[in-house]
Design brief:
Blueprint lengths: L4 E6 L6 H10 L5 E7 L10 H11 L6 E6 L3 H8 L3 E6 L2 H17 L4 E6 L9 H9 L10 H10 L1
Parallel strand pairs: 1-2, 1-4, 2-3, 4-5
Bound molecules: adenosine-5'-diphosphate.
Adenosine-5'-diphosphate binds next to helix 1 and strand 4.
């Protein structure tokens, strides 16, 4: 696997414009960006794993530099199995930092040769989280400027 591959892991329940922005900007730095969608969570997802995979594939359809892959279990195990070396994560707030710092150090302890790279959110998307999106949609608000059009349509179906 070439060095300039970044794995952008997450739950993506659902994908937001904040996520898309991180992927788009990462493409300027890395040859390939792999959106790695986690199957495991202690959260109860709104979108099933199959839906999250299908929607991410639809969002990046035709984009040669982005691949969508599933992973189950520990991220570092999936990375090692595929010989991936770089984790990409987005940062919005100080509270993101605390969590991400802990995760990056834990991952480093488990797998010495895997590095985590962080990208700051674009200020336009700094307030956007999947949780907030779901809450606004549930209460009947419009999230059109916060998520890709296909996600907005699916949220309308759900609520
Ligand atoms: P998690 O893996 O914690 O469930 P998500 O699936 O929501 O997180 O997001 C995956 C990654 O994208 C995380 O690194 C998260 O910090 C980042 N991210 C989420 N929303 C935004 C945003 N609006 N701007 C930049 N990065 C974001």
């Amino acid at each position: 696997m070439p060095k300039s591959t970044a794995v952008y892991p997450g739950f993506f329940d659902p994908f937001t414009l904040g996520h898309v922005n991180i992927v788009d900007r990462a493409k300027d730095v890395f040859d390939t960006v792999i959106v790695a969608i986690s199957k495991d969570s202690n959260k109860d997802p709104l979108f099933s794993f199959d839906e999250r995979m299908a929607l991410a594939e639809e969002i990046f359809k035709g984009d040669q530099s982005v691949r969508v892959e599933p992973f189950q279990g520990l991220l570092v195990h999936y990375m090692e199995k595929n010989d991936y070396r770089t984790i990409l994560r987005g940062l919005r707030t100080v509270s993101d930092f605390e969590y991400e710092f802990q995760m990056a150090l834990a991952n480093k302890t488990m797998s010495q040769h895997i590095e985590t790279f962080f990208m700051m959110t674009d200020s336009r998307y700094s307030f956007i989280s999947s949780t907030l999106i779901k809450e606004i949609a549930r209460l009947g608000g419009s999230v059109d400027n916060m998520v890709p059009a296909i996600i907005s349509a699916k949220l309308k179906d759900k609520f």
